[in-house]
Specification:
DNA-binding helix-turn-helix protein; DNA binding; 0% strand; 85 residues; Lambda_DNA-bd_dom_sf
Length: 85
């Protein structure tokens, strides 16, 4: 039961970020190249979100994945390391 509540709390941020930008679930789903139903299941914690979708959401909202997962309250993304030459 506790695990389910933790997951629901984590995905709350994903919904809040979407709503802050006045985007519909359908628009977010289109951006992520998934169906609206699939996106809705992720946002409502009915399905586990794959890592690639989590990363795409973090990139889209310009936040860290840790922020989306409520591991931090700091929205700022981590700097990307430059590729070695």
């Amino acid at each position: 039961m506790q695990r389910s509540q933790d997951i629901m709390k984590q995905y709350k941020r994903i919904r809040e970020l979407r709503e802050d930008r006045d985007l519909t679930q359908a628009k977010m789903a289109h951006t992520l190249n998934i169906t609206q139903r699939t996106y809705s299941r992720y946002e409502n914690a009915d399905s586990m979100m794959p890592l690639d979708i989590l990363v795409k959401l973090a990139d889209f909202h310009d936040v860290s994945t840790d922020y989306l997962l409520e591991r931090t309250d700091i929205k700022k993304r981590y700097p990307r390391e430059k590729e070695h030459e």
